[in-house]
Design a protein that fits this description.
Number of helices of chain A: 5
Largest interface: A-B, 24 and 23 residues
CATH topology of chain A: Transcription Regulator spoIIAA
Number of strands of chain B: 8
Largest sheet of chain B: 8 strands, mixed
Radius of gyration of chain A: 14 Å
Oligomer: heterodimer
Number of strands of chain A: 7
Strand content of chain B: 25-35%
Largest sheet of chain A: 5 strands, mixed
Distance between the termini of chain A: 47 Å
CATH superfamily of chain A: STAS domain
Number of domains of chain A: 1
CATH architecture of chain A: 2-Layer Sandwich
Amino acid sequence: MSTQPKRRRLEVEDYGEITVVNFIDKKILDEQNIQKIGEDLFSLVDELGRKKVLLNFSNVEYLSSAALGKFITLNKKVNTSGGKLVMCNINDDIFEVFEITKLNKLFNIIKDEQTALQSF
Amino acid sequence: MQSREPDGSVEFVIPSDLNEARNLQDIIETQLRQCAFEDREIFGIRLALEEAIVNAIKHGNQMDQGKKVQVRFCIQPHRFDIDIADEGPGYDPEDLPDPLADENLERPCGRGIFLMRHYMTEVIVHPPGNLLTMSKVRTNGHTNGNGHVNGNGNGKK
């Protein structure tokens, strides 16, 4: 019996101590994809011990509350490990979601990647 | 399964399958675009739909493929209306914790109905809580958001 390979959901690149994550999907909606994205993000902290993580949302057009839940859990993990999570390149529609849920208070959100990289 | 009603609304009955839900959302998005809804309006409606249909499948029907979700919607140039019914026991939106309370900000879940309320003009949860009605009313070519939730039920979601 063959198993279907899971498609890659994240592009991960290290800039020194900072791990930059780009999302491949424009829509972070599908429950199974969100589950996989969560697992991959958590493993950066839990297994690879990354402490400085930058999430780049430049490709993201939609996300759901389930995706927000994964980012909240990731933020907790990074903070617990003494690290820092930063988000950048969030478009106006998605930023509104963070704003109305008050999650913009919880997360470090910075406009562009260059400034975000310098914030660590 | 799809049928068109005499009042112009369209009804779909889908199994508790998230892929089916995605396909249905794509159909609705296409029809909204055909009716000249704008990107910003579609973003909000799409997000509210995602939260409502996933709630129905996951929390209402508990992902039971034998249970159906019934979706009936009507798109007009000035408004979008949708009913979503699941086969679960229902829930009372009043029982949900306030996702904006400081003590709840770090909860990874519980924002679905809040997002629906923000992006739709009206959201009604009909007792016992397994039928949701949402509307988005457009004024001058734009939709009104920041709706309120009416109704209650007696289950969990």
